[in-house]
Design a protein that fits this description.
The chain has nine helices and seven strands. It is an alpha/beta fold and about 290 residues long. It has a single domain, classed as NAD(P)-binding Rossmann-like Domain (Rossmann fold, 3-Layer(aba) Sandwich). It is globular.
Length: about 290
Amino acid sequence: MTTASAPSRALEGRTLIMSGGSRGIGEAIAVSAARAGANIALIAKTAEPNPNLPGTIFTAAQAIEEAGGRALPIVGDIRDDAQVTDAVARTVEEFGGIDIVVNNASALDLSPADALSMKKYDLMQDINARGAFLLSTLCIPHLRNSANAHVLTLSPPIDLDPKWFAGIGTGYTISKFSMSLVTIGLAAELKDDGIAVNSLWPRTTIDTAAVRNILGAELVSKSRTPQIVADAAMAILSQPASAATGQCFIDDEVLVANGTDDLSSYRVAPGPSDDLELDFWMDPMG
């Protein structure tokens, strides 16, 4: 990564397709990409408002267009091969190609192994690992035609220390590490095609509906905003594809490497940096 900040219109004319994106980190990345000039296609299930999960694919599309981008909201299930195939085809028809894939959709259940139903296990594998593989591979023919192709998956660096499995839940950990294996594997397979395939993960908890509803609203004051992940994503996606591939990046490390000296603006509430709540699979720095 270079130390230069991403130009304000670094994604001008490029097309990004994302799984999920109705809210939270996905929406923040989509809106930031729209501000940078990208066309945005979203495939997500949320078409109707939910009081516990604010935001739909249509409100996200509105935010994208208000940010200056062109939006294509596609109601669909990332687990359904035919629906994802159709979403890719509609994106190409609407915008003329695909330059960027963002695998954002994810299911979360932190139950220990003996309390996790196989239905929930299968849901996480199908959305997290299989969904990332499906969308990425369906887009490969179009990415090969791009002058600067990227695949970015929201998944963590793989660390096989047993403490992560015991503390987070084996089922969820398997599904998220499998997303990172998609990154590592496709990066190797597509290196000669000039397609960058990387992962990105937040160091701290992020103020999203998942944190509020599953981990607890009390963590919000010790969290960062989704914009830190979005800004890190923009730094990665605005680089030439030759700059990095097969990497599992951490959001604040990307920003520091790109010249950001002060990360305090990303905090939800003021406070010292050492009281931020670390996200899954993150050890303290230093």
